[in-house]
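Lab manual, section 2.4: Encoding a predicted structure.

Procedure: take the sequence of the chain (258 residues), apply the prediction step described in section 2.3, and record the output as structure tokens. A sample record is shown.
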Amino acid sequence: MGILNATPDSFSDGGLNAAPERAYAHAVQMIAEGANIIDVGGESTRPGADAVSVEQEQARVIPVLKRLCSLDTVISIDTYRADTARKACALGASLINDVWGLQKDPEMADVVAETGAGIVMMHNRQGEDRSIDILDDMLRFFERSIALAERAGIPKERQILDPGFGFGKVLEQNYMILNGFDRLLALGRPVLAGASRKRMIGEVLNVPVQERLAGSLAVHVMALQKGAKIVRVHDVKPHVDAAKIVQAYRKVEKEAAQ
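Recorded output:
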């Protein structure tokens, strides 16, 4: 999943692809590098970012989506607002990436069901709390998200879980989640890992955002080894190469076990 931020203030690439023409060119480049999904967002979710209105969000993403949906690839809309998701799907998006796991907008689950889109349900918290058991918190959160999805009639095969690296978590909790991936996989849904260029990497390596590729690759390779099916990234080509190595290794590993 290639990240396409149609925002002026995203932590890594804010403003670079806000114009529809530049967004389209970047999407084409990511697809050429091997991206299977393009994830378009119109509001920065980095810590401390200013909230935007639904009108602002749509003013950013709708012109971009009108260009992108002509491409032969899966288009995802990164939003927690049902109205934005509905309009994005009408333009051709087929995946909704909700950073609040259907729990922010009460209409979101119904929109997902009505449009036939897939849904990425991400774990999130209002704030950090190092005293909690983050894995238990995440599992309880996903129990609520899955219940909302099933109540709305969203098929299990269209539900994807994202542990939400960096969202409402102190540094150590991100790595606790990575270490406990088996508990997440036990919920029986595909898992998406998105640690690209995040603070959980920058704090360990003590490097700025643009120097976090190696750390991003390390986290995502571990996630793929542990069973993640999708990685959400800024740097597509290096991650495609890394994923191919993981696939080659796992193929031999599987054959040796037979």
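Check your result against the sample. The mean pLDDT is 94.
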